[in-house]
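Input (structure):
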């Protein structure tokens, strides 16, 4: 697998994202995946507000999430069925503004994929929207996929044998988040100014469209649900246990 981060100009609010990408990446091979920082989608779709105060940001976090829990560093939130920090609202590299995730990140990813397929003349293309995240009890940020289109984000290995012939019973491989984390490591988190990354030879199955439900996992089966329930982030009534 080959990952190539792309240094770009500074993307401006409501600038046309497909045109911006084509200016910096004239072409890609068939069966490539383009990782795009979520900030670009927020700016493209005009999800921008001037920063006014901590109280304003807190109100936005509560509005944008289905559940929110204050922690020493930030708000731990659930948004669109995904655990994330501050409901995805970002201040870094935002020039004094607040950037909010688009209302439908998956629709935006598919819109971008279709536009790029037409201009690049490729059939199989993935678009992967990345955002920073924090793993429990681990130092530093990694990344996750807030949306993707054009490929299967989850590999189902249930029923397949391991190297000793034992059938796997519960193994699902999260390809989308794994690729997001790898791409983010190349793209950087500071002043690198590389919000795009071309991924070649990724071990995924390409398919048209976007499926927002594929990667969601039921809370009643999730490893961390007891912790989230104890903290009040998830109510017991929200699980079918």
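Output (sequence):
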């Amino acid at each position: 697998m080959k990952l190539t981060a792309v240094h770009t100009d500074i993307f401006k609010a409501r600038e046309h994202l497909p045109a911006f990408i084509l200016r910096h990446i004239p072409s890609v091979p068939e069966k490539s995946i383009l990782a795009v920082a979520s900030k670009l989608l927020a700016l493209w779709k005009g999800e921008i507000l001037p920063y006014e105060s901590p109280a304003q940001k807190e109100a936005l976090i509560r509005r944008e999430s289905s559940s929110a829990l204050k922690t020493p560093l930030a708000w731990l939130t659930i948004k669109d069925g995904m655990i994330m920090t501050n409901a995805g609202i970002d201040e870094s590299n935002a020039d004094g503004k607040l950037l909010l995730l688009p209302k439908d990140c998956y629709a935006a990813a598919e819109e971008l994929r279709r536009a790029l397929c037409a201009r690049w003349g490729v059939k199989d293309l993935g678009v992967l929207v990345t955002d920073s995240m924090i793993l429990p009890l681990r130092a530093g940020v990694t990344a996750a996929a807030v949306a993707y289109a054009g490929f299967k984000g989850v590999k189902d290995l249930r029923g397949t044998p391991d190297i000793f012939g034992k059938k796997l019973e519960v193994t699902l491989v999260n390809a989308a988040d794994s690729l997001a984390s790898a791409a983010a490591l190349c793209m950087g988190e500071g002043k690198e100014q590389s919000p795009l990354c071309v991924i070649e030879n990724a071990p995924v199955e390409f398919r048209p469209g976007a499926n927002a439900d594929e990667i969601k996992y039921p809370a009643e089966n999730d490893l961390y649900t007891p912790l989230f329930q104890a903290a009040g982030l998830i109510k017991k009534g929200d699980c079918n246990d």
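Notes: Residues 69 and 76 are 5 Å apart (CA to CA). The chain has a mean pLDDT of 94.
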